[in-house]
Amino acid sequence: MSPGDAQEPLLSVRHLSKHFPVRSRGFLQKAAGTICVVNDLSFDLHPGETLGLVGESGSGKTTVARCILRALTPTAGEVWFRTNGRRVDLARLSDRALKPLRPAMQLIFQDPYSSLNPRMTVSQIVGEPLIIHQLAKGAELDDRVADMLLKIGLKPEHRTRYPHAFSGGQRQRIGIARALIMRPSLVVADEAVSALDVSVQAQVLNLLKDLQEEFKLTCIFVAHNLDVIRHVCDRVAVMYAGRIVELGTTAALFKDPRHPYTRALHSAVPRPDPDQRMNFEIIGEAADPGSLPSGCAFHPRCPQCFAPCQQHRPELKPAIGEAAGQTGDHLVACHLNDEACPKETQ
Ligand code: SF4
Questions:
Q1: CA 54 to mean position of chain CA atoms
Q2: 225: which residues sit within 8 A by CB, 6+ positions away?
Q3: How much is the pLDDT for 346?
Q4: Upper half-sphere CA count for residue 90 (Cβ side, 13 Å)
Q5: Closest residue (by CA) to atom 5 of ligand 1?
Q6: Please, is 331 exposed, middle or buried when counting C-beta atoms within 10 Å of its C-beta (0-12, 13-18, 19+)?
Q7: What is the pLDDT, as a whole number, of residue 294?
Q8: What is the DSSP string of 173-191?
Q9: How far is the CA of 335 from the centre of ligand 1 (A)?
Q10: Would you state the pLDDT for residue 2?
Q11: What gap in Å lies between CA 323 and CA 91, rounded to an integer?
């Protein structure tokens, strides 16, 4: 059970879609249609829970995160966010109505090198959101910044230094401090450690895990690598071609991955222990959102593809054989998971 199952969700995403216009080449660049990057996505996120959104480049995971934070406006669907005892649909709010909600939703950026202003000191970078939203000033501002720097493992003397004086891992800690100083109820970490060395990744992930527990954070953790999210996420949604293809607890997705794409993501992770390896290679490039294959979008790359896969798109359904009482915890969009689907070969 995820940490906040007994409570109402903090976030309920329903039938979220995002289309982007495609322009013709040439001088006039006329509108030439749209591509659908996120297609009919639904999930809940409970207070204190961390959900991983995992997939290759182009799977739509970052677009989902940006639609939730309203850095992008969804084309369709609802993003219900619980704040101050009421539910608001972020997808439909005007910029003006969104402004007072912004402190409650924070983004940890992917690139610790370019996301910090090189002309500001650490103290100014971390304290700036409090000034912008008029939440603290003077001695209170100084105290909150000093307290936050301590929490992310920086020393008081670091306050007056500029970003170039820090390593990549330290810069990402500064980015985390800037996001958390607002005491947000929702944090989105977009590939937050992918630009860092593997050894530094582990340190930053451990810090994030500690901060999650201390601040009771509710997080969405966007990553392309399944192993990265293993120790920080309660549940994982695996995305392919703009849709969720498997959703379940982290334990279920690591112990018993059902979708061939999830197994392929596992196979891509090097493991020294042969018993833990999943030899499930996929071929070819990720699907192009501008020209998705018919039926299951994964079928041209799937080693288990069979006849219905090319014609019918599989729906997200409870995993076959789930233990009683757990139905719905583990969802899979694959015809292999559909007992009613005839398994004739191609
Ligand atoms: Fe593979 Fe068919 Fe399942 Fe798609 S529906 S993942 S092609 S087996």
A1: 7
A2: 54, 194, 268, 269
A3: 45
A4: 29
A5: 334
A6: buried
A7: 93
A8: HHHHHHHHTT--SEEEEES
A9: 6
A10: 47
A11: 36
> Would you say 89 and 170 are in contact if contact means Cβ atoms under 8 Å apart?
no
Contact 16, 67 (CB under 8 A): yes
pTM: 0.89
User: Measured at the alpha carbon of residue 244, what is the angle toward residues 320 and 274, in degrees to the nearest 5?
Assistant: 65
**332 Cα: distance to centroid of ligand 1 (angstroms):** 10
pLDDT at residue 3 is higher than 70: no
Question: How many CB atoms are closer than 10 A to CB 114?
Answer: 12
**Token duo for residue 259:** 């979708």
Q: Residue 151's beta-bridge partner residues?
A: none
Give the pair of three-digit tokens for residue 60: 């739509």
| Residues within a 6 A CB radius of ligand 1 | 259-260, 296, 298-299, 302, 304-305, 309, 314, 334-336
Cα separation, 315 vs 234, in Å, equals 23
pLDDT-derived band at 230, boundaries 50, 70, 90: confident
CA 100 to ligand 1 centroid distance, Å: 44
Does the pLDDT value for residue 6 go beyond 60? no
The tens digit of pLDDT for each residue in 117-135 reads 999 999 999 999 999 999 9
